[in-house]
Amino acid sequence: MAIGKLFIGRKVRELRAASNATQSQFAERIGISTSYLNQIENNQRPVSATVLLALADKFQLDIAELSTGETDRLLSALAEALSDPLFEAYAPSLQELKLVTQNAPGLAHALITCHQAYRRNGEQLASMDDRLGRSAAAETTSYDEVRDFFHFVDNYLHDLDTAAEKLAHDLGLPTADSHPILTAYLEKQFGVRVVLGPMATHAIRQYEPASRVLTLNPYAPAHTRVFQTAVEIAQLHAGALADTIARNAGFRTEEAVDICRIGLHNYFAGALLMPYQAFLKAARELRHDIELLAARFGASLEQVCHRLSTLQRPGLKGVPMFFARIDRAGNITKRHSATKLQFARFGAACPLWNAHQAFETPGRIIRQLAETPDGVRYLCLAMQVSKGIGGFRTHQPVFALALGCEISYAEAFVYADGLNLTDRGGFDSIGISCRICERPNCTSRAVPPFRRKISVDHNMRETTPYKLW
Questions:
Q1: Which of 138, 216, 281, 419 has the fewest C-beta atoms under 10 angstroms from its C-beta?
Q2: What's the CA gap between 469 and 466, in Å, rounded?
Q3: What's the longest Cα–Cα distance across the chain?
Q4: Measuring CA to CA, which residue among 348, 344, 313, 342 is closest to residue 404?
Q5: What does the alpha-carbon distance between residue 451 and residue 465 come to, in Å, rounded to a whole number?
């Protein structure tokens, strides 16, 4: 395994503190000089392969946990916050940002939280309807807060995931037809009867605690009914665990706690229907063929894509991926990335990304080779899905699902077959969002980026009415 430069000073300091050793004692035990250890702990020098192996041997350091994904996510969020015009007098270098995220991640999170509060206050002050402005800001803020929670835990919750996997093993899951198993478990364990019946509204699932009856919408797709049955099991079987996780997350409002509970119940349901190790094994065997995985586990394409993005178990990780769900207006309603590509937390996605083309090609999984401004290349997949329930007169909302990995992992995907992964000229240049993208000559730019001044030539008009400098 090739190991790039690793700056893990904070982790080394934690190991030394846990062993109650001085720098000289610790350095001697791993066979390096005290000055070298001091430089490592201050992230002035990376650890060598020899030092890394010594730390693993003598201090049980788990090398698999040294992924840079968490730092990349925090670095992206911090850079986006500091791109706000509020900080126009301060333009930190990439090296400065890395030093902060590597050495003081708590401070970085605090600054991001302060920037979020600043934006919320600005939105409320700008609102002409104070009452509507307050409710809209609160709703958006709670969802953003929960999305950030899942994002910064790497979209993986070990206790919840392993609890779901254990229950799946006890029930004999996975199977393509899980519904009879789940309904029998609900009735035997909790006395809950599952029925199909008319709903008072367009609800998908409705549970009556008094009668202990779970009613499912008969017009919902089969995989949706199975998933909602699993959600009910999550509430009854793992409700206390989910509540503890939500309470310990440090959310500002009770509303955010409630929203987080929904996400945690959905997480448990996905992990129950697609247990970690069985799903990881199948993903590798099928080379991440999304449609075949959906057929094998009786799941929807969205459920499979979402589950693929959660395969971050320490010591048993899957391919690092990004996953997003996007509506027709370009709003990102779900997002997570274990790759260097980090979605913008404000604003729409890059218009050059193939996710937008999915709406033009329903029923197909489309492929794109793309390169971001930092030079990292990706295999990007996109597909359109419908979330509608009902008949002709029912609104059928559609979304684009985006899934992808860095090009070094592309061979693990059936979708890479037939693509020239070595020809850099075959990669489309994409960004993150216009407000933080530094590409100066992009003809699809919606707004100029923060931190860049513009010049206007009244005697010449190009694709944009300004130039960046």
A1: 281
A2: 10
A3: 78
A4: 342
A5: 18
